[in-house]
Design brief:
Helix content is 18%, strand content 29%. The protein is α/β, with parallel strands linked by helices. Strands 5-4-3-7-6 form a 5-stranded mixed sheet. It has a two-stranded parallel ribbon with strand order 1-2. A hairpin with a 5-residue loop joins strand 6 and strand 7 (113-123).
Amino acid sequence: MHKNLAGERLLTEIDSARLNKLRGEHFPPELVDTLESLDLVPSREIPSDIVTMYSQVIVEDLDSHQRQKLTLCYPADAEPHLGFISVLSPVGASLLGLRVGAIARWRTPNGDACAAEIVSLLFQPEASGDYTT
């Protein structure tokens, strides 16, 4: 079983700056907590198995064992029915900064607890040499 230990969640400095610009009345408290707990690293130094903004991941629901491809994005690009999940959503906030093999945990709007394992990272901008997305 995978566990998330303190200091295991990483965020690029550029993602941090952009996310902090989004702070406002609709910024979820879970994401505030997440941003405060993440360790910042330069984009060129982020490990290739960390979920950053615009990363494509395969997650597996721990209860149903269903797999789904998700892309973590900013709110303006969110299209949940196509798998583009806003970082401001509970699912998006829970994925940010986690490593492949980690368990993302969140609550639905009606309060149900959900969890999914990050099975694989199909694409990470930084791993492909894109340090500005």
